[in-house]
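Lab notebook, design round three. We kept the backbone fixed and only want residue identities now. Task for the bench partner: fill in a sequence for the structure below.
Input structure tokens:
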């Protein structure tokens, strides 16, 4: 048998094994009519990114499922790829160019895109290589990029088809605008945060000063864009004013008072200023009343020429100037402190400005119908199920999706305009000239929202728009693993596109996980400086401990706290498994390992084989139910406690014995249990399990292609296993008693074990009681006859064990030790009692401190009673 080093060194194993896996094409999948397909498409990480703990969790969960299904006989495809990430990537490139003193407009679109592709080639591979460090078993031959030729054709085709169906249109609508990124954002790309601000109460006067209306606003800088005041048609305070006009404060423009049910008459003053160009609700009111839409903000966050005397001011400067002017004119009635949710850009976190702009939109309501139904019917399931509420809440209230972005990096919108006759042409390829007048055309400058292409990821990566064997075989895919934070960003859109383009769901199950927080429960961020680099953890501890620590104690859908102690515990588990394997290899000898001889099994053998069966059944069931954390914990408990701590210790007497047949059978059992345990553990810890599996006898070329363990009816020994559990419980009780009495390990007293019902099982297991409970001799009897009155007893539900006191301890020394301990405990009782009887202490000390003293007193009194009883018994 091969020699194994004394300790496991991940740094010499992981890279070597991964190269071997890749060279042998073990990750690759092909359409196979003889097998059932299982497919996961990776949530494509941004090419701007480095591996962070969120990625590490996401990829680990996917790899666990993929490796499990691969071993279970499925044709398993984990399809990798990266996302071009329009905004994030363009920002990075612009920043890099700025350091060279170059503005993107100086070099033009084509040169900028050349730089962008160079940047992608240089940095876009970084995260892929980092995923490999984690052990991700992706089919790298099929790696895709959201802007590769195939994905680009898919995006263009879908855009044109939706346009032809009237589901994509271009128009002036209120959108979310980031003045920092200088691009439109979809509703899903706006993050809301509570900010402390003010509520300004502003009086709008009649032209002749005969009446006035007071409105409150959180955004005085929008006042130059006001085009109406709205009141509820049933509000008796204002019915006489409907149809009249007021003047915009400071600006002096006359605007109408309109009646609209949007206004809540019991909220505030019951009157609302209407700024259609800068508020989504006001925009709808403006459409209903045919109000002018007056946009007063520029794209980069300044006041434009329609802002009157405030032209050229930044928005916050305009706010200050208008407030000051209204104070001087008397139009500012009062200012209140006010906290409210403010929309911010999900990328740069600047405040988002709602404004009217000509953009491209997807009409989502017709597309949402099938996407809602496929989840409602259970055809697509969320795990945990509660996340379907997040999905439905978004889908039932869905608005038209703004998909155009004012960027250069991304899928350019396939629309061309004729300036001569106003014609718009939308088609997959560039037209030569205007089909109406023959003039030259210019292409739309904008690109599509990144999530537009990401929404097609499950089918574009499998070959769409071509009818490929992969698309036919692997679509719909099987499981999508993702964080709850992008259910509406990404999951909803994939279901929408899948149901519309493919007329099929994109996947069966959405397995939702939470985010990785620090040990204090805080979100990891650059500003807090609490981020942890997974690559450093992998360098110091290995990929397996990191993966295992991310899965254990982490239930689906919930956030988890990252702890280095969990990584260390997982590293210790690796060492435990390694040492167990090394022990086995040192005891195998040179003879081949045969099948287990079932006629030679004793109670311990039957127990471990029965528990192996149960573990296989339970872990398989947990994985099928996406209870990955429970599966990992069960494997850990079985391998560490039952196999290493118990069965290996039970096997040692026979391994060291002279019965060669027994030796051979125990070796076969050890190999069987360890081999199946490595298979069960492999999805979670791929590197060490492969390394150890290759050392075990009768192994295949790789563990990842070995068959997943199955329950064997021949290993069903329920009665014998229950009896062995009873024996083990008795051994635990005896060990605890020895620890309480400070019995040295060298003391091995004779032992009488008493049980009427379980005597036969105890006799069979007497060898294990003797070796594991530290006894020189074990006698089993059905009653207590002949047991000395001073014998010490250890009682369990299965049996009672009696040991002569004088064989456990030196009586004189033990009496002296106990007397000394009694005096110490009495001293503690006197101290605590004195404190608690001191009225000054009780009156001044905090209740928590008083309660701690009471607990100490009660503990000491209880200990004194036990010590005195033990001394009297001696």
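Proposed sequence:
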């Amino acid at each position: 048998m091969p020699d194994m080093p004394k300790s496991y060194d991940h740094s010499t194993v992981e890279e070597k094994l991964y190269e071997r896996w890749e060279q042998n094409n073990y990750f690759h999948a092909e359409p196979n009519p003889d097998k059932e397909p299982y497919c996961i498409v990776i949530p494509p990480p941004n090419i701007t990114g480095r591996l962070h703990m969120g990625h590490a969790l996401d990829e680990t969960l996917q790899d666990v499922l993929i490796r499990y299904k691969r071993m279970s006989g499925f044709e398993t495809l984990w399809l990798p790829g990266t996302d071009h990430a329009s905004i994030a990537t363009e920002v990075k490139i612009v920043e890099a160019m700025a350091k060279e003193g170059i503005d993107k407009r100086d070099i033009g679109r084509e040169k900028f895109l050349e730089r962008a592709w160079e940047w992608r080639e240089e940095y876009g591979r970084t995260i892929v290589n980092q995923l490999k460090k984690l052990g991700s078993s992706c089919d790298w031959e099929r790696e895709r990029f959201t802007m590769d030729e195939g994905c680009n054709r898919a995006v263009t085709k879908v855009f044109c088809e939706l346009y032809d169906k009237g589901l994509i249109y271009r128009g002036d609508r209120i959108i979310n605008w980031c003045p920092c990124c200088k691009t439109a954002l979809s509703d899903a790309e706006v993050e809301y945060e509570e900010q402390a601000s003010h509520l300004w109460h502003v009086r709008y006067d009649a032209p002749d000063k005969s009446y006035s209306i007071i409105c409150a606003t959180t955004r005085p800088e929008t006042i130059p864009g006001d085009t109406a005041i709205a009141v509820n048609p049933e509000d008796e305070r204002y019915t006489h004013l409907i149809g009249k006009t007021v003047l915009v404060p400071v600006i002096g423009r006359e605007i109408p008072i309109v009646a609209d049910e949007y206004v809540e008459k019991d909220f505030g003053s019951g009157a609302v200023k209407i700024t259609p160009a800068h508020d989504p609700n006001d925009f709808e009111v403006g459409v209903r009343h045919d109000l002018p839409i007056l946009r007063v903000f520029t794209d980069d966050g300044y006041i434009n020429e329609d802002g009157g005397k405030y032209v050229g001011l930044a928005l916050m400067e305009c706010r200050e100037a208008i407030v000051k002017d209204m104070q001087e004119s008397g139009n500012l009635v009062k200012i209140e402190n006010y906290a409210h949710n403010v929309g911010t850009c999900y990328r740069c976190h600047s405040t988002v400005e709602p404004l009217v702009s000509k953009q491209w939109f997807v009409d989502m309501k017709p597309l949402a119908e099938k996407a809602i139904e496929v989840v409602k019917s259970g055809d697509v399931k969320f795990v945990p199920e509660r996340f379907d509420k997040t999905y439905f809440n978004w889908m039932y209230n869905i608005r038209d999706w703004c998909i155009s972005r004012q960027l250069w990096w991304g899928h350019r919108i396939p629309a061309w305009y004729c300036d001569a006759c106003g014609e718009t042409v939308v088609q997959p390829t560039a037209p030569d000239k205007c089909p109406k007048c023959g003039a030259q055309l210019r292409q739309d400058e904008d690109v599509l929202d990144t999530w537009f292409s990401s929404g097609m990821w499950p089918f574009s990566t499998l070959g769409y728009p071509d009818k490929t064997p992969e698309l036919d075989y692997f679509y719909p895919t099987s499981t999508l693993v993702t964080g709850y934070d992008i259910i509406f960003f990404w999951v909803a859109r994939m279901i929408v596109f899948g149901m519309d383009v493919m007329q099929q769901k994109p996947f069966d199950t959405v397995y939702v996980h939470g985010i990785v927080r620090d040990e204090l429960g805080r979100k990891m961020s650059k500003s807090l400086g609490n981020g942890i680099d997974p690559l450093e953890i992998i360098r110091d501890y290995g990929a397996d401990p990191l993966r295992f620590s991310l899965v254990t104690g982490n239930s689906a859908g919930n956030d988890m706290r990252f702890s280095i102690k969990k990584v260390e515990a997982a590293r210790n588990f690796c060492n435990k498994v390694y040492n167990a394997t090394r022990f086995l290899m040192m005891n195998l000898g040179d003879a081949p390992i045969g099948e287990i001889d079932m006629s030679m099994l004793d109670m311990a053998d039957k127990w471990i084989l029965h528990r192996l069966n149960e573990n296989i059944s339970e872990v398989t069931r947990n994985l099928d139910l996406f209870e990955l954390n429970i599966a990992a914990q069960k494997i850990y408990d079985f391998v560490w406690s039952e196999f290493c701590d118990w069965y290996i210790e039970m096997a040692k007497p026979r391994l060291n014995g002279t019965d060669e047949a027994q030796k051979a059978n125990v070796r076969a059992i050890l190999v069987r249990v360890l081999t199946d345990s490595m298979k069960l553990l492999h999805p979670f810890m791929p590197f060490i399990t492969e390394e150890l599996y290759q050392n075990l006898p009768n192994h295949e070329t790789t563990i990842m292609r070995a068959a997943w363990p199955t329950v064997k009816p021949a290993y069903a020994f329920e009665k014998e296993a229950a009896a062995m559990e009873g024996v083990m419980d008795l051994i635990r009780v005896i060990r605890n008693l020895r620890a309480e009495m400070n019995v040295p390990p060298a003391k091995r007293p004779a032992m009488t074990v008493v049980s009427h019902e379980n005597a036969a099982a105890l006799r069979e297991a007497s060898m294990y009681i003797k070796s594991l409970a530290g006894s020189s001799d074990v006698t089993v009897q059905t009653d207590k006859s002949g047991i000395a009155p001073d014998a010490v007893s250890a009682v369990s539900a299965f049996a009672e064990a009696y040991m002569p006191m004088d064989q456990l301890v030196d009586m004189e020394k033990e009496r002296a030790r106990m007397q000394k301990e009694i005096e110490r405990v009495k001293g503690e009782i006197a101290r605590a009692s004195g404190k608690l009887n001191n009225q000054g202490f009780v009156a001044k000390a905090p209740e928590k401190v008083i309660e701690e003293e009471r607990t100490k007193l009660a503990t000491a009194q209880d200990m004194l009673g036990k010590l005195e009883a033990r001394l009297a018994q001696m």
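Keep this in mind before ordering anything: The two ends are 54 Å apart (CA to CA).
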